Amino acid sequence: MTASAPITQDVLTIPRKLPEGPINLIGLTREAMRDALIVAGTPEKQAKMRVGQIWQWIYHWGVRDFDAMTNLGKPYRALLAERFVIEVPDVVRRDVSADGTRKYLVRIAGGHEVEVVYIPEVDRGTLCISSQVGCTLTCSFCHTGTQKLVRNLTAGEIVGQVMMARDDLGEWPESGEGMGLRPRLISNIVLMGMGEPLYNFENVRDAMKIAMDGEGIALSRRRITLSTSGVVPEIARAADEIGCMLAISFHATTDGVRDRLVPINKRWNIATLLDALRTYPKASNSERITFEYVMLKGVNDSDEDARRLVKLIAGIPAKINLIPFNEWPGAPYERSDWARIERFADIVYKAGYASPIRTPRGEDIMAACGQLKSATERARKSRADIAAEAGLDG
Ligand code: SAH
Ligand code: SF4
Known about the structure:
With about 400 residues, the chain is of the alpha/beta class. About 30% of the residues lie in helices and about 15% in strands. The chain folds into 2 domains: about 20-85, DNA polymerase, domain 1 (Orthogonal Bundle), CATH 1.10.150.530; about 90-380, TIM Barrel (Alpha-Beta Barrel).
């Protein structure tokens, strides 16, 4: 890609309302569900209240069957069952790592597959979800970026990943159990799976609004982190319309290196990105921006890089998350040595920034950051590669 080539999102989005067939209630915003209920015959005056009731059944109790919605009249339940479904993506494969990390391969409409990872820790449980099948960007250290096929997930498919994981973890409350009575197994959500969330803005926003709503998944906006490679024009919009925590895949301290690692840097370079973050309305000492920094041996891990990094981000309430590079087959990089990572962390820390080193989780099941790439898409690509090698293009 040349420096001036626009980076576009040449991807397919499935329309939310399929022209025929029942509508999936999961993923509809309050407004969209209200409209859909009215179209289905719900009196306008009742529609808002019905949305609240249905949301609680779906997102608080995990109910999938309209007949279980006992505060709705029987004829109304039958009407809903005729017009709507409550569907979450199918799990086609589940791997559990020796460290307890769970990786799910879920199938969405069209037979596409995305990966979801659950990471249990002492004080929290983090669910890493995907926003796209594949990614249009091609960061050279990221496995997802090598996947050819890309499609945006719908809001229902994004929230559906959380619902699927709650099913698997048995997280739904027992009948009669109120909200907030036991610690949540999924206490945090990170949009750090496959895809660039800001290139699927509306669907990610609608899904996260459901995740943050008290009658939805009911997680605080401070427990949701959206990670972006740096889609500058959408960053302020994310603060405004989503309001969750922000992480930036920074990874380099000069434009030359960042152009190679995170090619979107050719469109919005380091200075432009940092300007957007300096004016990020939500950043404060209690809501710091996370800078993700992957440690690549001999590429971006010198003392000089560490010093340049702290100079660059001066004035931005930030924490630096150092990610030891996770290898994948054919990756053109190596992980920095542990002593190097610690030395880098120390320089950043002494400059006044928290600099945790992210412990790689679930490496034995390829669940770690940047290793995600679903099996079907992998197979698809290798067939294409074989054809290309054999001169059978197309
Ligand atoms: N597309 C978004 C979110 C998904 S990637 C983004 O790029 O921010 C989540 C994080 O994992 C990003 O910081 C990404 O740069 C990092 N990552 C990707 N590949 C990695 C690898 N092989 N090892 C370690 N981190 C990786
Ligand atoms: Fe896409 Fe993020 Fe991977 Fe870059 S690091 S290719 S933006 S998923």
